[in-house]
TrEMBL record:
Keywords: Cell adhesion, Glycoprotein, Integrin, Membrane, Receptor, Repeat, Signal, Transmembrane, Transmembrane helix. It comes from Coturnix japonica (Japanese quail). It is found in: Membrane. The keyword Metal-binding does not apply. It is a single-pass type I membrane protein. The gene is ITGA7. This is Integrin subunit alpha 7. FG-GAP repeats lie at residues 325-386, 387-442, 446-505. Residues 829-1034 form the Integrin alpha third immunoglobulin-like domain. Belongs to the integrin alpha chain family. One of its GO terms (cellular component) is external side of plasma membrane. GO terms for molecular function: integrin binding. It comes from the Eukaryota. The keyword Repeat applies.
Length: 1130
């Protein structure tokens, strides 16, 4: 049997009884069942113990038994019911018969049935053809647990005497499930082992009821027909996997002689169906009810948990041929879920139609961690094909739904309640679900936990719906596999009527109304009364109540705005607690308290909420008593009624519209700014998408400019919005890289009367700035949030600051916005270049590539010097830098253009780096740098004859324009501090220019240089990282004359010029231009020069320049008296 344990939890609707603690020697194992019986005798608990030791007269070790316990606390008060004593070993065996596997009671004054489904009938004991058939049997007892009438009581074993073998009735296992019909006329037996474990259900009439009704032909009924005994009549799906069974006798002279063979599933044999639906276990659970398919008509229900490998439930009715005919079959949902393992028939919504609950304890969902299910079918007026079940589920591995039972109407609300066992949910749990007008309430009204009463596998068996303590509320008995049962008694349920009023209803902040001191006070009054069922239950109740103000505000971390006067010393300032006594039902009792507003409250808009919470004093642990009677239980509040009430007192609102609703219109504008030193803040530059760009190289101070306004959205309708914004605030959340540092006013002051106050958290990740309380209509606030850039690293790519305006005024569109800035790392690198000389010339003769052997045979020499300057730190922390030189080495036709001879990069003294690919691809002989230099100017000719105007043009050769082909020389810039210089030496390919550009005025050749950085940092930006170096190329003047105008053109031009000159002289002579008038010449100084002979000249030569200096002429001047000067030699 077991023990009924007392729980220490509070008395809810069901409470573990102090008086019901029993401990016996038997152990409840699988199949243990429970029943509560009551009537003229004291109430008793009946507990089946299928593994109880055998009685001495039973000649077995374990047979099981039935135990009865009165509702007393002593374990020794339990006794074993004296049934099934003695044994006839020639006819039967009671070893492991599992007596007590099912126990059911009819109710007050009714009978009890208990079964042993593994009872074994024997024939030809100790003979070669001995048979042992596990037919099972049941016992029906009277209310006093005695057999008074042989017609009603005694053994019930309908499988005895029928054809044996597992394909017929040899493994009948009658009594694995048993029950009484609700009209008390029938007893139901499940026999899941009949017909190859297809199963069967038998309904048998109790003779006493038959005599009362004068009906003598009522039953018995079977699903396969009591007379037909045809398994094809059993309406369960086919899922045979048993195969064929051959039985031989190894002790006979012919061991191969066939003794028994099971029928072939494909064989049409008498009494068998073609599909042979074996192993369905019909009869594993049984129940019945009036109003399942027709109102006031009795129907029977049986579970087949292995039907079609998912399980099924069959609803049957009686017919005139003593058969149970199927009316509906409810299939299972999931494979191996054991749908139909347990059944409960009850009216959850009190509509007169019986509803059905089906247990599937092996249902599971791995991801949802579900283990076990109970399917609730609300009866659709008998049309079960339209029924859609509601699935209740338990936790993983809990076996939720292994036990089901009607708990009766626990709260007397007119709807039956459901109890569901989950014995492996922790220590085991029982879930109580309330019925309602809409069906079942899916949230459990109460969860009974075995851990609270020290019992494991709690909830393996259930028996309820019986009032054992006489308080008109049904009680519940819970069994387990751990040698214990627990009786839960239902507490009386009371309904509290309460009302809270606040005086005055509105608070005027300009009027003090406290009676004995200055301040603003509000009176709180609460009135209570209660009702209960039954009406005769009317004890005095003491309620404990608590007034709690500003609950929601304090939940948000804000201080309360009120202080209760006259409170208990243990109560906080925002609470007031006391008790009030309700003398009887329907009697109204009131109580009151007063609170005062605190000084300088900020929230003057939202109402002050006062919450009233209450409970019954002394409704905790049931009182302890050692008397023989059960002590009364304290009442509990109805779980369907909230145990709290809320009331509000409002402020008289100022600065709002005529409707007394403050509808503000806060608008926010922002931008990132920066400044150097003490200068004014300037906006950060923005990219193409409008995002601010924060460069790490030059920004010093960074700020976020905030501009908030509260103005009407439509000036033509100012009454629509723009009212005072109470408790206007700005909350900013900063990233870890850009924490808050300080707040600064805009232009040295704010637009409000006092400066903005901002409060930041400890790490500067969030700040809240007060904008005004209230922020008046038409007001605006402008200030700077100073941000710290110390947390920005090379890996930071963007910055996001979340800004949220808030106010307790009405403005539903206040959504947070994000201020974003993109972070870039500007490398302070610059690239410059120069060509020496900047002008080159080509001329001479065309020479093929194969004829060129030395550098000097190529053409004019040029040197490009590219300087990379680094104004910041070394590049080694950022990545790998390279200098790329785009060298125009050939034309599109493949002819050489600018031949590369040598490239060398000097990053530091003594550190020289070569570029790739290698220069001088033709491996020409290089000349020493001094000899390879050429003059910047071409050799001067005595005169210049330009080409015709129509043939002169300028050409630009640039790889970027596609007019030349370039080779990219890549030069690594290893760590360098300040600068690196690339020297690139090359020569014009003279022959190409003679062939392609003889008729041009000039050719501009572009060499490009750029710096690139390869780094894991994605936001690197290079400024001034590229340059272009132009070189202008001209044709040698000598080549231009020789190859210019033809000789006959020149000759004609000379002759024409001479002719024009002669004509001009002739005309002037005719006009007398050459005729002179005589005049007396004036006296002018004269000189006389003397030429120095050649041999007397001295020659001077400068050693380095190679120039010759000549001596100047020697002249003597004289002035005679006649006015003439007489020169003389020095």
């Amino acid at each position: 049997m077991g023990r009924v344990q007392r729980g220490g939890s509070e008395c809810a609707m069901l409470a573990a009884s102090e008086q019901c603690t029993h401990l016996c020697t038997a152990v409840i194992l699988e199949g243990g069942s429970l029943a509560l019986i009551w009537g003229s005798h004291p109430c008793r608990l009946l507990v089946g113990a299928p593994q109880a030791p055998a009685l001495p007269s039973q000649a077995a070790n374990r047979t099981g038994g039935l135990f009865a316990c009165p509702l007393t606390p002593e374990p020794s008060d339990c006794w074993r019911v004296p049934i099934d004593e003695g044994v006839d070993l020639q006819r039967e065996s009671k070893e492991n018969q599992w007596l007590g596997v099912s126990v059911k009671s009819q109710g007050a004054g009714g009978k009890i049935v208990t079964c042993a489904h593994r009872y074994e009938a024997r024939n030809r004991v100790r003979q070669p053809l001995e048979t042992r058939d596990v037919i099972g049997r049941c016992f029906v007892l009277s209310q006093d647990l005695q057999v008074h009438d042989e017609l009603d009581g005694g053994e019930w074993k309908f499988c005895e005497g029928r054809p044996q073998g597992h394909d017929r009735f040899g493994f009948c296992q009658q009594g694995l499930a048993a029950a009484f019909s609700p009209d008390q006329h029938y007893v139901l037996f499940g026999a899941p082992g009949t017909y190859n474990w297809k199963g069967n259900m038998r309904v048998e009439l109790l003779n006493q009821s038959s005599l009362d009704l004068l009906r003598y032909d009522d039953g018995p009924y079977e699903a396969g027909g009591e007379k037909d005994q045809d398994p094809s009549l059993i309406p369960v799906p086919a899922n045979s996997y048993f195969g064929l069974l051959f039985v031989t006798n190894i002790d006979s002279s012919d061991p191969d002689q066939l003794v028994y063979k099971s029928p072939d599933p494909n064989e049409k044999v008498p009494g068998a169906a073609g599909d042979v639906p074996q192993n369905s276990y019909l009869g594993f659970s049984v129940d019945s009810g009036a109003g399942l398919t027709r109102r006031r008509e009795l129907s029977f229900v049986s579970g087949a948990p292995r039907a079609n490998h998912t399980g099924a439930v069959v609803i049957l009715r009686r017919d005139s041929a003593q058969r149970l005919v199927p009316e509906a079959v409810l299939p299972g949902e999931q494979l191996t879920s054991a749908f139909g393992y347990a059944l409960a028939v009850l009216d959850l919504n009190s509509d007169g139609w019986m509803d059905l609950v089906v247990g599937a304890p092996h249902f599971f969902e791995r991801q949802a961690e579900i283990g076990g299910a109970a399917y609730v079918y609300i009866n659709p007026a008998g049309h079960w094909d339209a029924a859609t079940p509601l699935r209740l589920t338990g936790t993983h591995g809990s076996m939720f739904g292994i036990a089901l039972g009607s708990a009766g109407d626990l709260n007397l609300d007119g709807f039956e309640d459901l109890a569901v066992g989950a014995p492996f949910d922790g220590a085991g749990k029982v879930y109580i679900y309330h019925g309602s007008k809409l069906g079942i309430v899916v949230k459990p009204a109460q969860v009974l936990d075995g851990e609270g009463v020290g019992v494991t596998t709690f909830g393996y068996a259930l028996s309820g719906g019986v009032d054992v303590d006489g308080n008109l509320y049904p009680d519940l008995l819970v069994g387990s596999l751990s040698d214990a049962v627990v009786l839960y008694r239902a507490c009386p349920v009371v309904y509290i009527s309460r009302n809270v009023s606040l005086i005055p209803a509105n608070i005027d902040l300009e009027q003090n109304n406290c009676q004995h001191h200055e301040g603003i006070c509000v009176d709180v009054q609460a009135c209570f009364s209660y009702t209960a069922t039954p009406a005769s239950y009317s004890p005095p109740l003491v309620l404990e109540y608590v007034f709690d103000a500003d609950t929601e505000r304090r939940r948000l971390g804000h201080p309360p705005r009120v202080t209760f006067l006259g409170r208990r010393p243990s109560d906080p300032e925002h609470q007031f607690s006391n008790t009030v006594e309700l003398p009887r039902q329907h009697t109204r009792t009131c109580t009151a308290a007063t609170f005062q507003l605190q000084d300088s409250i900020r929230d003057k808009l939202r109402p002050i909420a006062v919450t009233l919470a209450y409970g019954i004093q002394g409704a905790g642990t049931p009182r302890h008593s050692r008397s023989a009677t059960l002590p009364p239980l304290p009442p509990v509040l109805s779980p369907q009624q909230p145990s709290s009430h809320r009331a509000e007192v409002h402020f008289l609102k100022q600065g709002c519209g005529d409707d007394k609703i403050c509808q503000s219109n806060l608008q926010l504008r922002f931008q990132f700014c920066t400044r150097l030193g003490d200068s004014d803040f300037l906006p950060l530059p923005k990219g193409a998408d409008g995002t601010a760009i924060f460069a790490m190289s030059d920004q010093k101070d960074v700020a976020l400019e905030i501009h908030v306004t509260n103005e009407p959205s439509d000036p033509t309708e100012p009454q629509r919005d723009g009212d005072d914004a109470h408790e206007a605030a700005l909350t900013a959340r900063f990233p870890q890289e850009l924490p808050y540092s300080a707040v600064r006013p805009y232009d040295g002051r704010t637009a409000t009367d006092k400066p903005v106050v901002c409060l930041a958290n400890q790490n500067g990740s969030q700040v809240e700035c007060e904008l005004g309380n209230p922020m008046k209509r038409g007001a605006q606030v402008r200030f700077y949030l100073i941000l710290s850039t110390l947390g920005i690293t090379l890996q930071t790519t963007d910055l996001a600051v979340e800004l949220a305006l808030s106010t307790i005024s009405e403005q539903p569109d206040l959504e947070p916005v994000v201020a974003r800035a993109r972070v870039v790392i500007e490398l302070p690198l610059s690239v410059t270049g120069v060509a020496v000389p900047p002008r080159l010339f080509f001329g001479g003769t065309v020479r093929g590539e194969s004829a060129v052997r030395r550098e000097s045979q190529v053409g004019s020499a040029v040197i490009f010097e590219v300087t990379v300057s680094n104004r910041g730190p070394s590049l080694k922390t950022l990545g790998s830098a390279f200098l790329t030189l785009l060298w125009p080495h050939e034309l599109s036709n493949g002819k050489w253009l600018l031949y590369p001879l040598q490239l060398e990069l000097v990053a530091a003294p003594g550190l020289r780096t070569m570029c790739s690919p290698a220069a001088n691809p033709l491996r020409l002989a290089l000349e020493p740098p001094g000899e390879a230099e050429v003059s910047e100017e071409p050799p001067m000719a005595s005169w210049w004859v330009p080409a015709p105007a129509e043939r002169r043009k300028n050409v630009t050769l640039d790889c970027a324009q596609g007019t030349a082909r370039c080779v990219a020389f890549r030069c690594p810039l290893y760590s360098f501090e300040r600068s690196a210089v690339l020297t690139a030496r090359g020569r014009l390919w003279n022959s190409t220019f003679l062939e392609e550009y003889l008729d041009v005025t000039s050719v501009e050749l572009i060499v490009r240089a750029s710096v690139s950085v390869t780094s894991s940092i994605k936001n690197l930006v290079l400024k001034d990282a590229s340059t272009q170096i132009p070189v202008t190329i001209y044709l040698d003047p000598g080549v231009a004359v020789a190859g210019g105008v033809p000789w006959w053109v020149i000759l004609l031009a000379v002759l024409a010029g001479i002719l024009v000159l002669a004509l001009l002289i002739f005309i002037l002579w005719k006009l007398g231009f050459f005729r002179r008038a005589r005049y007396v010449p004036p006296a002018v100084p004269q000189y006389h020069a003397v030429k120095i002979p050649r041999e007397e000249r001295q020659q001077y030569r400068e050693e380095k320049m190679g120039t010759i200096q000549r001596k100047e002429w020697a002249v003597n001047w004289s002035e005679p008296s006649d006015g003439h000067v007489t020169p003389s030699s020095a």
